[in-house]
Amino acid sequence: MKMLLFPLLIVVVGVIYGLVGNDLAGATMLLVFAGASTFFLWVLVPTFEHEGNTAPIDEDFTFPED
Known about the structure:
Largest sheet: none
Mean pLDDT: 83
Strand content: under 5%
Structural class: mainly alpha
């Protein structure tokens, strides 16, 4: 849950920016960035430790010569 503080901070900045600066486009971009960051942190970060080979290694493979 601690990792979601960064997107929450971006949401707070986006809301304050939208209210104080009267710039809807900039506030919208900040809120979309916060959503994308939330998706990345919530879905992808927990899988970082599970990386490995994507296919079995063929020990008999040789690179073709040009």
